[in-house]
Amino acid sequence: MTNPAKPIRTTALSEYKRRGRKIAMLTAYDAAMARLLDQAGLDVLLVGDSLGMVVMGYPTTIPVTLDAMVHHTRAVANGAARALIVADLPFLTYQVSPEEALRSAGRLLQEGGAAAVKLEGGRAIAATVHRLVEAGIPVMGHLGLTPQAVHQLGGYRRRPESETAALLADARLLQEAGAFAVVLELVHPETARAISAELAIPTIGIGAGPHCDGQVLVSYDAFGLFPGPVPSFVKSYARLGEEMLTAAQAYIADVQEGRFPE
Ligand code: KIV
After folding, report:
1. Of 72, 93, 211, 242, whose CB is crowded by the most CB atoms within 10 A?
2. What gap in Å lies between CA 227 and CA 221, rounded to an integer?
3. In angstroms, what is the span from residue 1 Cα to ligand 1's centroid?
4. Cα Rg of the chain, angstroms
5. Using CA atoms, how far apart are residues 39 and 3, in angstroms rounded to an integer?
6. CA torsion, points 245, 251, 254, 259, in degrees to nearest 10?
7. Is pLDDT of 1 > 60?
8. Sequence-distant (≥ 6) Cβ neighbours of residue 10 within 8 angstroms
9. Among residues 187, 197, 84, 200, which one has the least CA distance to residue 142?
């Protein structure tokens, strides 16, 4: 029996994969949300750079800074007691050199309180992943649709099945470099099946079908908090945005009509 208060370590995720126990991951950006998701029993909380879009209102994740990631990661770490906290390294904080990546990742662990970092890319960042892992920093990879490359990819489009061999090669390189898990975003379900079957480390899918070892969603999308267009693969678990709107309107009416304070 697992102790519910015992923090989940990166090493537990491969063990879950071996046992066929699926991994549940959601994004979190602040302490209140992190506390609730942790209490609900999420395995992993991702402080995603998606915060640039859903929290900060930018059209892409590109403007997100390392300072912003440290700030939100600290908040999530303050709220969660058990879930593994993984923080995204934002655009251009790890691509210039492995040394710069090491300093950036170090801030997310030291100042932010993350237990691991996530980087986008395959072959091009394998040496950087190796450098971070060598320094004791656990790394989660991210392949398929890599949102930081949205301008190069021409939009947030599903990766075609014809990319399976290339993505499999990238996934192998990430595993060899020491990554403890890899996110597969918007890859074809058969690509996800092939990579998940091949790797010993777990795959975490987002819009990648049912064959991954775990799933991740942007919590604001899944809980109806993001008013913008939500990807079609997202399952809606709540309509918190609508509830907040109704609650705010009730408050305004109470104040204006003298019902609050009584
Ligand atoms: O930033 C993020 O939220 C992510 C997920 C979409 C996996 O990287």
Report:
1. 72
2. 9
3. 31
4. 19
5. 13
6. 140
7. no
8. 84, 115, 116, 138, 180, 181
9. 187
With a 6 Å cutoff on the Cβ, whether 88 touches ligand 1 is yes
pLDDT score recorded for residue 228? 84
**pLDDT above 90: residue 4:** no
What residue's CA is closest to ligand 1, atom 5?
48
- List the beta strands (DSSP E) in 171-246: 181-185, 203-206, 214-217
- CA dist., res. 68 & res. 112, Å (int): 10
- Ligand 1 pocket residue status of 205, Cβ below 6 Å: no
Given the CA of residue 50, which atom of ligand 1 is nearest to it? 1
Question: Which superfamily does CATH assign the domain made up of 10-256 to?
Answer: Phosphoenolpyruvate-binding domains (3.20.20.60)
Tell me the mean pLDDT in the region 120-125: 98
Active site residues: 185
**Per the confidence metrics, is the pTM higher than 0.85?**
yes
- Read off the amino acid at residue 241: G
pLDDT digits (tens, 9 = 90+) for 32-82: 999 999 999 999 999 999 999 999 999 999 999 999 999 999 999 999 999
Q: Locate 235 and state its tokens.
A: 């399952």
Distance (angstroms) between ligand 1 centre and the Cα of 97 equals 23
CB atoms within 10 A of CB 5: 7
CA–CA distance, 124 with 2 (Å, rounded to integer) = 38
| Residue 50 Cβ contacting ligand 1 at under 6 Å | yes
Looking at the predicted structure, is the pLDDT value of residue 2 above 50? no
**Residue spans per domain, the chain:** 10-256
Task: Enter the DSSP assignment of 260.
Answer: S
- 215 Cβ closer than 6 Å to some ligand 1 atom: no
Rounded to whole angstroms, the Cα distance separating 211 from 192 reads 6
